TrEMBL record:
<dbReference type="InterPro" id="IPR020904">
    <property type="entry name" value="Sc_DH/Rdtase_CS"/>
</dbReference>
<dbReference type="InterPro" id="IPR052178">
    <property type="entry name" value="Sec_Metab_Biosynth_SDR"/>
</dbReference>
<dbReference type="InterPro" id="IPR002347">
    <property type="entry name" value="SDR_fam"/>
</dbReference>
<dbReference type="InterPro" id="IPR036291">
    <property type="entry name" value="NAD(P)-bd_dom_sf"/>
</dbReference>
<protein>
    <submittedName>
        <fullName>NAD(P)-binding protein</fullName>
    </submittedName>
</protein>
<keyword id="KW-0560">Oxidoreductase</keyword>
<keyword id="KW-0521">NADP</keyword>
<dbReference type="Pfam" id="PF13561">
    <property type="entry name" value="adh_short_C2"/>
</dbReference>
<dbReference type="GO" id="GO:0016491">
    <property type="term" value="F:oxidoreductase activity"/>
</dbReference>
<comment type="similarity">
    <text>Belongs to the short-chain dehydrogenases/reductases (SDR) family.</text>
</comment>
Length: 283
């Protein structure tokens, strides 16, 4: 029966030979995602963040993974994605080393926590510049490289690291993340617009929405919220996010398995978003 004849099922989640760019790839979620892309078969993964030394050490760690495809390589490309000049610099560094890009993970992000009454204009602008404007600049400037090999059968992919803070309310009060939460809501909607704009060019665009994952960015807030253990226990799945949780969704969306997913925003939070305000009443 036709329904049982899945075309080449063993390669459905493979990224064999793909070329990827990961911004904010030097640590945290971006580094986990880069590791997943390489271990799923990518041939070349460009690792970007502002600091050259951390890009280099991330690449050294990735290049020493034991199970990479022969010749697979992580390449450091430092750049500041909050400015158009920085994005153009990144594109020029990448174009000097590849003629096309299959996967762009726009993951670099910034946050700011401060109460409403004194929440600084400059902090709001900084967060918007990297988390929204920077992502738009990145996708626009990389579009020609993403389109070069893209096709209906094998579309290129843009993945945007958004957040569940862009789907529900982020943090309010003393450590209010008003700009961050608004920026993530904005970038999710930007992703939907780009999905419809770029789909016909063979480029699918999706957002991933992590909940809490321990990282340099989230550790301070996690501590203030009661710590990893307490926050983990409060999650419906009784734990916080792990590197493999990001890895799985990124590989799915970047591979043939995710080829018809476009304009989606996928939560990776153990269902925490839906349990907010839940009444713990024993009936
Ligand atoms: N961890 C969580 O709980 C969580 C939850 C939801 C969403 N997220 C999102 O996940 C993404 C990654 O966060 P993370 O938790 O992995 O944070 P992280 O460990 O602090 O990593 C942030 C990365 O972005 C880079 N970066 C920061 N500013 C940059 C800029 N202007 N240009 C280029 N790169 C820049 C950093 O390197 P440099 O400092 O060297 O530039 C670093 O590589 C962010 O978009 C964040 O909003 C995280």
């Amino acid at each position: 029966m036709a329904e049982t004849q899945l075309h080449d099922f063993p390669s459905l989640f493979s990224l064999d030979g793909k070329v990827a760019v990961v911004t904010g790839g030097s640590r945290g979620l971006g580094l986990s995602a880069a590791s997943a892309l390489l271990q799923a078969g990518a041939a070349k993964v460009f690792i970007s963040s502002r600091k050259a030394s951390t890009c280099e050490s991330a690449c050294a760690a990735l290049n020493s993974l034991p199970n990479l495809r022969p010749g697979a390589v992580a390449v450091p490309v430092p750049a500041d994605c909050a400015t158009l000049d920085g994005v153009k610099h990144l594109v020029s560094q990448v174009s000097a080393q590849t003629e096309h890009v299959d996967i762009l993970l726009a993951n670099a992000g910034a946050t700011w926590g401060e109460q409403f009454d004194s929440h600084p204009d400059a902090a709001f602008a900084k967060v918007m510049d990297l988390n929204v404007r920077g992502v738009f600049n990145l996708v626009r400037e990389f579009a020609p490289l993403l389109a070069r090999r893209a096709s209906v059968e094998d579309p290129s992919r843009v993945l945007i690291t958004a957040s569940t803070a862009g789907l529900g309310i982020g943090t309010i009060g003393k450590q209010g993340t008003y700009g961050y939460s608004a920026s993530k809501a904005a970038v999710i909607h930007l992703g939907r617009n780009l999905a419809v704009e770029l789909g016909p060019r063979g480029i699918a665009v999706n957002s991933i929405c992590p909940g809490f994952f321990p990282s340099k960015m989230s550790n301070g807030l996690l501590e203030m919220a009661g710590g990893v253990e307490r926050m983990g226990k409060a999650n419906p799945m009784r734990r916080l996010g792990r590197p493999e949780d990001i890895a799985g969704v990124v590989v799915y969306l970047a591979s043939r398995a995710g080829a018809h997913v476009n304009g989606a925003a996928i939560e990776i939070d153990g269902g925490a978003m839906w349990s907010r305000g839940q009444l713990d009443v024993k009936l």
